[in-house]
Structures are given as structure tokens and as C-alpha cells.
Amino acid sequence: MPVKSEVNLENLPKHVAIIMDGNGRWAKSKGKLRVFGHKSGVKAVRETVEAAAELGIKYLTLYAFSTENWNRPKYEINALMKLLVNSISKETKTLIKNNIRLSAIGDVKSLPADCRKELEETIKTTANNTRMQLNLALSYSSRWEIVDAVKKIATEITEGKIEADNIDEEMFGSYLDSSNSPNPELLIRTSGEYRISNFLLWQIAYAELYFTNTLWPDFGKEDLYAALIDYQKRERRFGKTSEQLIEA
Ligand code: IPE
Ligand code: IPE
Ligand code: MG
Question: Would you say 87 and 43 are in contact if contact means Cβ atoms under 8 Å apart?
């Protein structure tokens, strides 16, 4: 497994996004219930946040609960929400100590009241922290976010605040829930699934994708280093030719 010193600090992505997947399978492989996997996933979150902040990554977005996850069995949803409240309340001190700002994207209004309260309080207490921004995607799906942006834009057009002709990519992006972060340069998905599952569709237009078979509860600092080292070997061409990049 790689070590921190193998990561080139001069070529870090500003923003890393992670689809934290595989908690259920991890638990099953140990003969335990799915919820045990979710509980064990919290440690991986802690390690990843710490590793990202130590390296100097400025934005980290973690996909914690999707719009589609509301279709899971009720007891699993309840357990996840409970875990969320407890983890946020437990981790607030560490976020403050490490100068990390918490933010959330998604339909947070749909979360249970105690969850929302805890989340909003921590967002408020960490609002002025500057080392890294940690975005939790909660009750989030990219299509929800895009439709929500379209609604806001349509309302402003009706109210005469903006004109349809003035809509461009930058302006559209500014209406997205996640507009408080730049687009991620690197997207990681754990658990060996090769899909995006409705995550940041607009924002990952040019992100580098990294898939690992590691199940989320086993993900640690070294796994993040491995993803970053792989990212640093890639040539990001943005439609240009390799020769053009060398000339520049
Ligand atoms: C990811 O693990 C956590 C959430 C989606 C909330 P899963 O619960 O999807 O675990 P698998 O994919 O079934 O193993
Ligand atoms: C994606 O994982 C959502 C999160 C990690 C929160 P899922 O396990 O819900 O995705 P699918 O259903 O396998 O695509
Ligand atoms: Mg899954």
C-alpha cells in the first residue's frame, strides 16, 4: 500500500468526491447485519476526512444517502438516520479542532427533524473554518439537484429577475445546490461497482474516475493515497491533443 510521501502535493485535486459504497456487503461477509456495516463505515469516513485535510485537499464531498436510498427497508433508513445524528454530534469537536467546515447538499428538508437540527448546528458552528470544506450529500441525487436548479431559474425568469438568453453553463452551475464548491477533479467509488448512481452528473463532466474493489468500511488513508497517485499519473486533456498540452 502507498504511503503519504508518494503523493505529489504539487498536483493535488482541489476537490475529491467519494461514493462510499459496500457497507452492506462488508457486513454480510462477516455474517453480520447490514447496519453493522454502516456503523463500521463511520471509521472510514473519519480516516478519509483526516487524510484529505492533512494532505491539503480543499473540498471533500461524501455521498452518504441518496434520494433512491429512501426506498430501502424502513429499519435500515432509521438506523442510518440515527447513525447520522450521532456521528455528526460526536465529530463536531474534531471538525472544529481540525478547522474543517461542514456543508450539506441534497434535499435536507426531507431528513428527520433531529438530523436536520444536528446538521444545521454543526454547519453553523464550523462556518468560519478554512482548512477544508466537507460536503455531505444527504437525500441527494443529481437529477433532483438539476431539476431544483431549473425550478429556481424558471421562477426568476417569471419574476423578471433574469433573462433566458443570459443562461450559460456558469450561470446554470451557480443555481446548483453544490455551487459552493468547484467541480471535483477526482471521483472515487468503492465496492467494485462501476456506476455513478445519480451523483454529481453535471459536476463530473471532466472528472477523473477511480474505482476500487475495497468495500467502504475497509477504506483508509492508504486507499485515498492510492487513488491520488493514480490520478496524478493521468493526462487530463479536456478535448485537446497530448501535443498541445506539452507545448503549453
Ligand atoms: C453504502 O453501502 C452506504 C449507503 C448507500 C447508505 P451500501 O449500504 O449500499 O452497501 P452495499 O452496496 O449494499 O454493500
Ligand atoms: C450509492 O450507493 C449511494 C451512496 C453511496 C450513498 P447505492 O448502494 O445506493 O447505489 P446502487 O443502488 O448500488 O447504484
Ligand atoms: Mg450499495
Answer: no
Give CATH superfamily name and number for 7-141+184-234: Decaprenyl diphosphate synthase-like (3.40.1180.10)
**What is the residue extent of each domain of the chain?**
7-141+184-234
pTM of the predicted model as reported, rounded to 2 decimal places: 0.98
Is residue 63 within 8 Å of 137, Cβ to Cβ? Answer: yes
Residue among 28, 197, 199, 211 to mutate when testing ligand 2 (max atoms within 8 A of CB):
197
Instruction: Establish whether 21 is a catalytic residue.
Output: yes
Mutate to test the pocket of ligand 1, among 191, 195, 215 (most ligand atoms within 8 A of CB): 191
Q: Do 11 and 177 touch, CB atoms closer than 8 A?
A: no
Confirm whether 11 is a catalytic residue: no
Q: What is the mean pLDDT of each run of 10 residues along the chain (248 residues)?
A: 96 98 98 98 98 98 98 98 97 97 98 97 98 98 98 98 98 97 98 98 98 98 98 97 92
